[in-house]
Amino acid sequence: MFNKNKTRLVNLTKMTKDAHANKYAIPHINTNNLEWIGAILDSAQANKSPIIIGVSEGAAKYQFGFKNLVDMVNNVMEYKNITVPVSLHLDHGSYEGAINALEAGFPSVMFDGSHYSIEENIEKTKEILKLAKKHNASVEAEVGAIGGEEDGVVGNGDVADPKECKMIADLGVSILAAGIGNVHGLYHKDWKGLKFDVLTEINALLAGTPLVLHGGTGIPEDQIKKAISLGVSKINVNTECQIAFAEATRKYIEEKKDLDTAKKGFDPRKLLKPGTDAIRQTVTEKIILFGSKDKA
Fold first, then answer.
1. Distances from the Cα of 31 to the Cαs of 34, 48, 90, 193, 219, in angstroms?
2. Which of 15, 155, 181, 266 could form a disulfide with 146 if both were Cys (CB 3.0 to 4.6 A apart)?
3. What sign has the CA pseudo-torsion 59, 63, 68, 70?
């Protein structure tokens, strides 16, 4: 029986600092259900990679709350004997959401104050940092809203002001997300690419604070690698796993394997397996691309 007073989860401060120092990035993979959690952990363990399991507030509600997620990830880690560093991280958390996640046992939270004025963003980030310190948790902040929509959180795609990034970083956040032309979801064919001039300036001003690249799905590999060379130490991926899961599940149904009563193809465990395998493969590809393989 798992001891609920003991957590196997870690905050992401050390893993992202190591990544920053050694020019690789930690995959942040959003989870949507138990199959996601198992697939993410399997891939991380097999590839000896540190991993960050991300969850939005909407996805947390779908999975019966923050506390249930903490318990699920801890229990799956114990059951699978996961030994690589694993963090559970609130993605694009509101002020109230970040507080609730910390109190539920999340070792890391993102407080997305990018839609506030810089002054209010600073004040609210300070308050989240104070609470996080009590829980030995790490905090991600954001400057310059990431474009697109992430589970109900909509950003205009504002490019971050490097000076404002420094103001937030100087508060003591573990990692900083800065809008540099990246967007959530799929990129349009007329997308102009990441703004590396802005990223270069931010990285120089922050002098060691690891940076986060949201909207990792669809960014060309050469831009991913260049972003990592310029201080990005955590890259978020969600849409790509969702698409892989949907495509594999659709193929299973189109081949009418769910109608094979002799093999009980309708069994949810069989129905969900191709999609789960597709997630596992996608995560492995990201681990290799981001350079975190064998870094645990």
1. 8, 19, 11, 27, 20
2. 155
3. negative
The label of the residue with tokens 């900083």 reads 176
For the segment 160-196, what is each residue's pLDDT rounded down to a tens digit?
A: 899 999 999 999 999 999 988 877 666 666 677 789 9
Instruction: For residue 91, indicate whether it is catalytic.
Output: yes
Q: Which fold has domain 13-238+278-290?
A: TIM Barrel (3.20.20)
Between CA 63 and CA 245 the distance in angstroms is 17
The most distant pair of C-alpha atoms in the chain lies apart, rounded to whole Å, by: 64
How would DSSP label each residue in 123-164? HHHHHHHHHHHHTT-EEEEEESPPBEEETTEEE--PPPPHHH
- Position 88 pLDDT exceeds 70: yes
Q: How does pLDDT run across 123-139, given as a tens digit for each residue?
A: 999 999 999 999 999 99
Structure tokens at 65: 């709350």
Q: Are 160 and 197 in contact (CB under 8 A)?
A: no
Q: Which pLDDT score, from 0 to 100, does residue 186 have?
A: 63
